[in-house]
Amino acid sequence: MKARLMDRAATVVLTLIAVLIIGTLVGLLGFILSQGWHKLNLDFLTSAPDIVNAGGGIGPQLFNSLYLLVLTMLIALPLGIGAGIYMAEYAPDNKITQFIRMSIEVLSSLPSIVVGLFGLLVFVNMTGWGYTLFGGALALTVFNLPLLVRVTEDALRNVPRSQKEASLALGITKWRTIVSVILPAALPGILTGAILASGRVFGEAAALLFTAGMSSPNLDFTDFSMNSTTSPLNPFRPAETLAVHIWKVNSEGLTPDARDVADGAAAVLIIAVLLFNLSARWFGNWVYKKMTSGSN
Amino acid sequence: MGHRTEGVNTERQSMIAQKMLTTNKRQKTENITGRTIAMICAGLLVIVVLSITYFIASKGLSTFFVDGVSFKEFLTHDKWDPEGEPSAYGVLPFILGSFFVTALAALIAAPLGIGAAIFMTEIFPGFGKKVLKPVIELLVGIPSVVYGYVGLTLLVPFIREQFDVLGFSLLAGGLVLALMILPTITSVAADAIEAVPQDLRNASLALGATRWQTIWNVVLHSALPGCLTAIVLGMSRAFGEALAVQMVIGNTTKLPGGLLDPISTLTSGITLNMGNTIQGTPYNNALWSMALLLLAMSFIFIVILRLLGRKRLAK
């Protein structure tokens, strides 16, 4: 009798915990979206922030976040896929491979602020670039590489052996087999991982404080030369991203509507991250359906 | 005549045989280049880790070797006054702050996370897979500054009104961090619980145990190393988290006295002061030493995780 009562009680408690977690998420999203809802208009999304007066927007920050995302992925994807190919197809079972695995583990558990400080030392001071978008992209590459390597390795290992063997039996070299048979088959898995990594890049701030900087020059959106200091496309200019802006406004915002700006910016950031997450999920399901129905 | 064709045939045959046996040069170089590229990418990971360790250590150690602060004073003194005369570099308040806030977060998040993991694997697996798992994955995706922002606009004022204090506090930091590490703990613990062989559950149920008795005595018992891994993983996240904590914790460099006191952590101290100090000064070097401490802690967490992993394998 007592055991049965305990069983009931435990079930109730565990269910409450699950409800609490779901409730928290719904509450969190509801709070952020309802707070920032009134700020979501074109003017806020495109105009530049104002340091002293009310009414500033987040235009440059939004652009910087997107541009930084593109730059980071251009650097990180080839490296991550390359290392993933090595780990899945070439790595012999020895001490060196173990050391590489250990390195991946260390990289993925490093606090992002430590990665940011490393970036400050190497990409900002040693290179003499100062705070730049490019330095930020390199720091974020360090931050994302372990995730991309792991995703690529898993995706490659999940490709059926028979495909690889068929290709090799035709006399096609190993590298050709990897590039033209295994990699295309693994691409959906890699892409889903890359989209998730993009969400992380978009929301990351601590590593960027010391690499891409906390300010954005006045951008001139008609100037697209790569060298001019006001050109949005110049990768060697300081750039404050949306996430960094939220942090800065909350901790040292001087404008009378700092709270408003923070509300709006947080809502935009959350919507962007949700889009990344949902599109990764949708894309994964779509590919799964396509592949499983195609095989019959 | 027959003789001659035979000779041509053998000649041709040996040519083909030779072609088949010798490797195609172009293919060979392609193979080697590909392999080398992949190897360089993998090698880069090692280089990055080694250079991070080297650079942070070389900067962080200069506090002790260049500025002459003793290692013991740095770790155990509670007076932090780098701009005073004489300057003091005791980072104990930061260290304790980091540990307290991490411990508080783990105390709150561990029971909730493992409870949710049991719920989604043992009690309602269908609902768990369809609703709870996606919800938890969404929570992982929310950026830390957003957690900090919510803590600042919701939690801090709430604590201020409830307890008639400042609001920026150890409690606020612990709660925000608990929410941040909850998804990590839940998903890792759920994997560990799912990996428990079904036979064990069946055997327990066949003996007449209730579902809860089975979960508590059998399932959780054999998933224990996995659950501990989940908690340690969550703690290592909490220890290194910077911005969300910095926004809600108050940042006063005093020894923490109670749950409602404002405190500082290693990460918040670095975040706030690194930009305002000049490179190469003792103050700046002391901040790098704090970063070195963070790095060392993350190595310690990895070692603990490896030990737990070995225990799981041994079972």
Structure description:
Chain A: Its main location: membrane. Chain A: The chain crosses the membrane at residues 12-33, 66-87, 99-123, 129-149, 178-199, 264-283. Chain A: One of its GO terms (molecular function) is phosphate transmembrane transporter activity. Chain A: It is found in: Cell membrane. Chain A: It is a multi-pass membrane protein. The complex is a heterodimer of chains A (296) and B (315). Chain A has 296 residues and is an all-alpha fold. Chain A has one domain (40-293): MetI-like (MetI-like fold). Chain A has helices at 2-36, 42-46, 59-90, 95-109, 112-126, 133-157, 161-169, 174-203, 206-209, 242-252, 258-294. Chain B has one domain (80-311): Orthogonal Bundle (MetI-like fold), CATH 1.10.3720. Chain B is built from 14 helices and 2 strands, in the order H-H-H-H-E-E-H-H-H-H-H-H-H-H-H-H. In chain B, strand 1 and strand 2 (88-89) form a beta hairpin. In chain B, helix 7 (144-163) packs across helix 8 (170-194), helix 7 runs parallel beside helix 12 (243-249) and helix 12 crosses helix 13. The radius of gyration of chain B is 29 Å and the shape is flat. At the A-B interface, helix 1, helix 3, helix 4, helix 5 and helix 6 of A face helix 2, helix 5, helix 6, helix 7 and helix 8 of B.
